[in-house]
Design goal:
The complex is a heterodimer of chains A (454) and B (483).
Chain A lengths: L25 E4 L5 E6 L5 E8 L13 H8 L11 H8 L3 E6 L4 E8 L3 H18 L2 H20 L6 H9 L14 H6 L2 H11 L5 E7 L3 H12 L21 E8 L5 E8 L7 H12 L5 H9 L3 E9 L5 E9 L5 H17 L4 H17 L10 H12 L5 H9 L3 H11 L5 E8 L15
Parallel strand pairs in A: 2-6, 7-11
Antiparallel strand pairs in A: 1-2, 3-5, 3-6, 4-5, 8-10, 8-11, 9-10
Helix pairs in contact in A: 1-4, 3-8, 9-12, 9-15, 10-11, 11-15
Chain B lengths: L15 H4 L26 E4 L5 E6 L5 E8 L13 H8 L3 E2 L2 E2 H11 L2 E6 L4 E8 L3 H13 L5 H18 L3 H14 L11 H6 L2 H11 L5 E7 L3 H12 L22 E6 L5 E9 L8 H11 L6 H9 L3 E8 L7 E9 L3 H14 L6 H13 L8 H13 L6 H10 L3 H11 L6 E6 L1 H11 L3 E5 L1 H5 L8
Parallel strand pairs in B: 2-8, 9-13, 9-14
Antiparallel strand pairs in B: 1-2, 3-7, 3-8, 4-5, 6-7, 10-12, 10-13, 11-12
Helix pairs in contact in B: 2-8, 4-9, 10-13, 10-16, 11-12, 12-17, 13-15
The chains are: A alpha+beta (454), B alpha+beta (483).
Chain lengths: 454, 483
């Protein structure tokens, strides 16, 4: 129902600096290839059923951008044995909340339920996994097409700076790369999607062997596994989904772009292509982002917002995905200041890190915050950020639901020199997209094309 | 064959053979029968006082080694003095900008290094300082927290910086249609002089002085005007000792409760159109004065609103989103406060269908006043009642529940009885509160959208008088920042 970006911080816990981090789980594979992950947490009488289908916007065909997310919406419209509208009604009548989200790489769905209602979620989820196409009609596709177009209007077109992502991705990746378009897709492509596309997509990707089912909360694992087998066991496997295999991407120029929008203040976006999730360099860039913009003492915040006060906000992030990641710095200029001024300071700070490793305390402060965030992630079984989702997330991205310790170790093992090296390798001046979004008619506030690199 | 599950601790690639027992098709013709729901068994709510009378509410919780500690003070925007709108909020935000001689940056570094978080802000009637920390860092974090609470410095330099930040945010609000709609709705509904309708103006922001903040904080931040909420991995006796050491010397004071005037109900229906040329959607806010948190109608209202616009299957969302495709979502809610807050129904709809969407809004606002089916009633009640345990999972959520309990003096068995009370609401009560509180003829309608494209259609609906407003009428002129 809702597109949300992948949360970077994933699972694990630190019980103390030394202890192991764990979400105890069991894994089972049904004969149709469905992976089942189970975790017990009896602190409240609730349970969550979390399903990942290993398909996202990166699998879309040309001319059908936005389709994976449109399909996500159709998953709530009823299935072979569940009439239209009944999916949500049955769940709410049982006291359950549910949602779904789509990214470049995957589509996930969850139901948070009182523990007595577990079987209802299994019934509904297995019915849409097995029998969605039986209930689909061109009318149901049209209904959600209208909703999704309004989602695009609300979250992108009617939001200040909302069309930045589309422009950046198009310029960052070659048109053949699965990440060169946004998850929401274009209006034209959303209009073009047909009922036949839905059936084909369902048969290709929404098969048990391309999914994983994670159940966490107040459960008895043996009983739960029996119920899972009862409802999902008879769904036939599909053909194996071919892995994506895009050519490695590298941007070898500095692209300088300007857009105008109905805004008061100009905003600067600097974006680089960086290593995919869990690849060498990924954790380094996470920490670098924190050193640059996490908290008041971070370098860019302190300089731009705190000392010079020429920016209203600053955010650096390493957005990690399966095939590639993006390191991005975004900053809004205060009235009377140009994006050229902002860029100059940002460039100075990037160069400073390239020339001299950060201080040990900066690294440690950042790693400490990561460690603490792992504890927070242990609090809830359900929702988009809960433990069930984390098991699925590690399973998909690292091939191992129990990757928590390895993940945290990546951060703990870093040295200040690693951060410096990552900045040198990945934050190249001649391989990035710089986008200025400026108020209508104020292109003089943008970063200018002829500006020198340093 | 079932025994195999008992040992399935590690990865087991289970063969099809093992599961052939269950592989015959289950009965999908109807949803499975469910056993009755389990009761939520919460740890006890414990209460005690420090030697200075400071009240503490604790819930021990041991699953994850975290502690949430909130210090709540009965001071909020309702206490903003004349011509100093926003003072409570700014004062609270300034607490973390310097304390006990430590600078803003030093405080932030110390907190961040612990992996803890401390924030401070003000609501309409109360303010809070919120600490969230790993238990292993609790002592150090508590020390910093007590400096922030008891020894704030309000440095001039940081105030100047905050004011610039505020002015720039006010400027950016001019870009944001939903923020404009919210500000307009509150200003029109409550009036520009009521604390629920007011917004800090450019001049008010520019006028705040360190003395304003200092004296305001001194007046309200006292031990007898505050209480502490703690949830997490800590025992009562240990906590009491630790809190006594840091908060035990906090002084009492003489704080007079301010009397807030109850807002006047809307008399007739008026449509306010705020032009946002080129907008892809129209933001619609429709509503009137609701009621207070402690109304005896609270439970039926919660059920009624769940059905009207408080859930995915609610009538507003089903109609405007699922049936007509006008929007990504439509919803309604009551803002419950010590005195009556707003009832608001809202959506962002495609520009071209603004008039049709308004018609459907009023169809549902009228429809909820009619008798309802048992299926609707039961679904709404079950959603509210049976999802209730989900509010008690993280330490910060639980602390939020306890804060509400303390602020409104709810009885100590409130959590335990909530579920059965909701399940006991009947259809007549729901229709009764709908008739009482959802009065479509007495509502304001705020629309922020592309006037050239939507005005004619709205006019034809004859909803009531149509008044045109500009964004500046609501937010004032775009603030000027001196460099």
């Amino acid at each position: 129902m809702r597109k949300t970006l992948i949360l970077l911080v994933t699972l694990c816990s630190i019980l103390s600096a030394q202890s192991q981090i764990k979400i105890p789980y069991t894994r089972h594979v049904l004969s149709n290839g469905l992976n089942v992950l189970l975790h017990e947490d009896h602190s409240t009488p609730t349970v969550t059923v979390n399903t990942w289908f290993h398909v996202g916007s990166g699998y879309e065909k040309p001319g059908r951008t936005g389709f994976a997310h449109l399909f996500e919406h159709l998953m709530f419209m009823g299935s072979g044995h569940v009439a239209e509208g009944e999916f949500d009604k049955l769940l709410e009548a049982a006291g359950a909340e549910n949602n779904g989200s789509t990214t470049e790489d995957r589509t996930n769905y969850y139901e948070d339920l009182p523990s007595n209602a577990l079987e209802l979620a299994l019934y509904l989820d297995s019915d849409r996994m097995g029998f969605l196409a039986d209930a689909m009609t061109p009318q149901s596709v049209d209904a959600q097409r209208a909703v999704v177009k309004n989602e695009r209007r609300q979250s992108y077109e009617n939001r200040p700076y909302g069309l930045s992502e589309e422009t950046i991705l198009k310029n960052l990746y070659p048109a053949t790369h699965p990440y060169s378009w946004p998850v929401i897709g274009s209006m034209t492509d959303l209009s073009a999607a047909t009922y036949n596309d839905v059936v084909e997509f369902f048969k290709t990707y929404y098969v048990p062997n391309n999914a994983s089912l994670s159940i966490a909360g107040d459960i008895n694992p043996q009983e739960t596994l029996k119920l899972v087998e009862k409802w999902f066991g008879g769904i036939p496997a599909g053909k194996p989904v071919e892995p994506q295999n895009p050519a490695a991407v590298r941007l070898n120029e500095e692209k300088i772009l300007v857009m105008e929008d109905r805004v008061q203040l100009p905003r600067l976006y600097m974006t680089w292509i960086t290593p995919q999730r869990f690849a060498p360099g990924d954790a380094e860039l996470d920490v670098l982002a924190n050193i640059l913009s996490g908290g008041k003492n971070s370098r860019l915040y302190q300089k731009l917002v705190y000392e010079l006060q020429i920016a209203q906000d600053i955010r650096a992030s390493q957005g990690s995905s399966k095939l590639s990641s993006q390191f991005q710095i975004v900053s809004t200029a205060r009235a009377g200041h140009t994006l050229e001024e902002l860029k100059k300071v940002i460039q100075q700070e990037i160069d400073k890190i390239k020339n001299e490793a950060p201080m040990q305390r900066e690294l440690q402060r950042s790693v400490n915050q990561y460690e603490a965030s792992f504890l927070d992630a242990l609090e809830k079984p359900g929702g988009f950020g809960g433990k069930a989702n984390q098991l699925n997330e590690y399973f998909y991205y690292a091939g191992n639901p129990d990757y928590a310790n390895e993940d945290l170790s990546r951060y703990k093992a870093l040295s200040v020199n690693d951060i410096q090296t990552a900045a040198q390798i990945y934050l190249r001046d001649n391989g990035r997209v710089i986008l200025s979004i400026v108020p209508k008619g104020k292109t003089d506030l943008a970063v200018q094309p002829k500006t020198e690199g340093k | 064959m079932k025994k195999i599950f008992l040992n399935s601790i590690k990865l087991i690639a289970v063969s099809a053979f093992c599961f052939s027992l269950y592989a015959q098709s289950p009965d999908r013709t109807k949803p499975p029968q469910l056993p009755p729901p389990q009761k939520l068994n919460l740890p006890a709510v414990q209460q005690f006082s420090l030697s200075n009378g400071l009240k503490v509410v604790l819930m021990e919780k041991y699953e994850v080694p975290l502690v949430q500690l909130n210090v709540i003070t009965k001071m909020g925007s309702v206490n903003d003095p004349e011509n100093k709108t926003g003072l409570a909020g700014l004062t609270m935000n300034m607490l973390t900008e310097g304390a006990a001689g430590k600078t803003s940056l030093e405080l932030a570094d110390a907190i961040d290094f612990l992996g803890a978080r401390i924030s401070a802000n003000a609501g309409p009637h109360s303010s809070g300082i919120y600490l969230h920390t790993p238990f292993s860092k609790f002592d150090e974090a508590l020390k910093i927290m007590s400096d922030i609470l008891l020894r704030p410095d309000f440095p001039q330099k940081e105030l100047d910086r905050k004011k610039k930040d505020r002015l720039t945010s006010l400027m950016q609000m001019h870009d944001q249609p939903t923020a404009i709609a919210t500000a307009a709705f509150n200003k029109i509904l409550f009036g520009k002089d009521h604390p629920y309708g007011k917004m800090a103006s450019e001049n008010e922001i520019k006028g705040f002085s360190v003395d304003d903040l200092r004296s305001f904080y001194k007046k309200y931040s006292t031990a007898n005007n505050s209480f502490v909420i703690v949830v997490g991995d800590i025992k009562k006796d240990e906590l009491k000792k630790k809190l006594e050491a840091v908060f035990g010397k906090w002084q009492k004071g003489d704080v007079k409760e301010v009397k807030i005037k109850e807002p006047a109900q809307v008399a007739s229906r008026i449509v306010y159109l705020i032009d946002k040329p080129g907008a892809a959607q129209s933001v619609i806010n429709i509503g009137r004065i609701g009621t207070s948190r402690l109304t005896p109608d609270y439970n039926p209202i919660v059920v009624m609103n769940t059905l009207l616009g408080g859930s995915f299957t609610s009538r507003l969302n089903q109609n405007l989103r699922e049936k007509h495709g006008y929007t990504y979502g439509a919803s309604s809610r009551f803002m419950f406060r010590p005195i009556p807050g707003s009832f608001i129904a809202a959506s962002s709809v495609q520009t071209e269908v603004t008039d049709k969407a308004l018609t459907e809004f009023f169809n549902e606002l009228n429809g909820i006043r009619e008798p309802l089916t048992d299926a609707d009633l039961n679904r709404a009640k079950n959603l509210v009642a049976l999802s209730y345990p989900g509010n008690f999972q993280s330490v910060s959520e639980i602390a939020g529940q306890l804060e509400e309990m303390a602020l409104y003096n709810l009885p100590s068995n409130y959590f335990g009885e909530f579920v059965s009370k909701i399940l006991n609401v009947n259809g007549n009560e729901v229709t009764g509160v709908a008739k009482k509180y959802i009065v479509p003829d007495q509502m304001i309608v705020v629309v922020v959208g592309d006037k050239a494209k939507i005005e004619e259609g709205i006019q034809k609906l004859n909803l009531g008088e149509l008044k045109n407003l500009s964004i500046e009428d609501i937010l004032g002129k775009v603030p000027q920042l001196s460099k």
